[in-house]
Specification:
The chain has three domains: 47 residues, Uridine Diphospho-n-acetylenolpyruvylglucosamine Reductase, domain 2 (2-Layer Sandwich), CATH 3.30.43.10; 111 residues, Uridine Diphospho-n-acetylenolpyruvylglucosamine Reductase, domain 3; 108 residues, Enolase-like, domain 1, CATH 3.30.390.50. The chain has twelve helices and 14 strands. The strands form four sheets. The chain has a five-stranded antiparallel β-sheet with strand order 4-5-10-6-7. 47% of the residues are buried. Bound molecules: flavin-adenine dinucleotide (FAD). The site of flavin-adenine dinucleotide has 30 residues, from strand 2, helix 2, helix 7, helix 8 and strand 10.
């Protein structure tokens, strides 16, 4: 199918992009990599009147090492991040997460910020931003605001970005030395959207107990989410197999799992607990230095 008619606009600054968003209102949409938006337009699920292409806005194509965080501009392609030596060195979990996103040709066009703004409940990057406590910079006519990942995703394909606003960058904190991290998922074939998956970052104290833990899940519910009850079970405990199993059992207590053609609620809940256990186990092993 072909998309409905639309006007194509290419601003040369973030300010101009925001002005166009406000000028054209609800019908205006940011065009980043187009890997989600264009198929949605072809299927007539989305019918924007104006597409505002931000991929050539100067400054939005930068990956910046801030010392304690890596900031990724809204026009940075997923593959640029995937093959960035800086990101590999400072935020390797992000590189591992990107390997699970779609296929190489799609990652050459798709952007990291586009995936986050799209807020697909199956998004590996959304869950990774949650596990890493990323910060989103959202820009509108009245200026910019910083939004923590835990507040950014509010429902299926819905974020706190309001009409007239855009995401200009996202900052992923550098994982402290000695931390362990892991991402894993189940999908029918590699590159397909996940039916269930998890991401975890674990830091151990000098006594071997869990000093900090994050666990986020994706593909399971109406949005990617943090599994706070599971995290709380582990923090302050020795990360034994028993403690991890108990934490994994708590991973889904705060959500209703989705059902669709790929699996029932019960199937997803089962997979979710399995994958929560796997990523927690792998993250702990890495933190202990047992696996690189
Ligand atoms: C076959 C296929 C398989 C895929 N598999 C996966 C997968 O396994 N996992 C996964 O996570 N994704 C998957 N994707 C989606 C892919 O990762 C997309 O690239 C991504 O979701 C959207 O990024 P984009 O830059 O292409 O955004 P676009 O398609 O350009 O935009 C997507 C939406 O976000 C909005 N948007 C984009 N950028 C901004 C911004 N800076 N500010 C505000 N709004 C913005 C747009 O207006 C639009 O509504 C797949 C896509 C395809 C085609």
């Amino acid at each position: 199918m072909k998309p409905p008619r639309f006007e194509y606009l290419r601003p040369d600054s973030v300010g101009a992009a925001v002005a166009l968003l406000n000028e054209h209102g609800e019908g205006a949409r940011i065009l980043a990599g187009g890997q989600s938006l264009i198929p949605m337009m072809n299927f007539r699920i989305a019918q924007p009147s104006h597409l505002i292409d931000i991929t050539r806005v100067p400054g939005l194509d930068a990956i910046t090492d801030e010392g304690n965080a890596i900031t990724i501009g809204a026009a940075v392609r997923q593959s640029t991040v995937e093959y960035s030596p800086v990101v590999k060195d400072r935020c390797p979990l992000l590189v591992e997460a990107l390997k699970w996103v779609a296929h190489e040709p799609i990652r050459h066009r798709g952007t990291v910020c586009g995936s986050l703004a799209h807020a697909d409940p199956h998004s590996e990057l959304a869950a990774t931003s949650l596990a890493l406590n990323a910060t989103f910079t959202v820009v509108g006519a009245s200026g910019e605001r910083q939004v923590p990942a835990v507040d950014f995703f509010i429902g299926p394909f819905t974020t706190v970005i309001e009409s007239g606003e855009m995401l200009s960058s996202v900052s992923f904190p550098v994982v402290p030395a000695g931390s362990g991290y892991a991402i894993d998922e189940f999908s029918r074939t590699h590159g397909n959207f996940a039916i269930a998956g998890g991401v975890s970052v674990i830091q151990l104290g000098a006594d071997g107990k869990v000093a900090s833990a994050t666990l986020s899940m994706f593909g399971m519910a109406s949005r990617a989410f943090r599994a706070f009850a599971a995290e709380e079970r582990l923090i302050g405990s020795m990360p034994t197999a028993e403690a991890i199993a108990e934490a994994a059992d708590l991973a889904l207590v705060d959500v209703d799992c989705s059902a669709d053609m790929h699996g029932s609620e019960e199937y997803r809940a089962h997979l979710g607990r399995v994958y929560a256990g796997r990523v927690l186990t792998s993250a702990v092993a890495r933190a202990q230095g047992g696996s690189k």
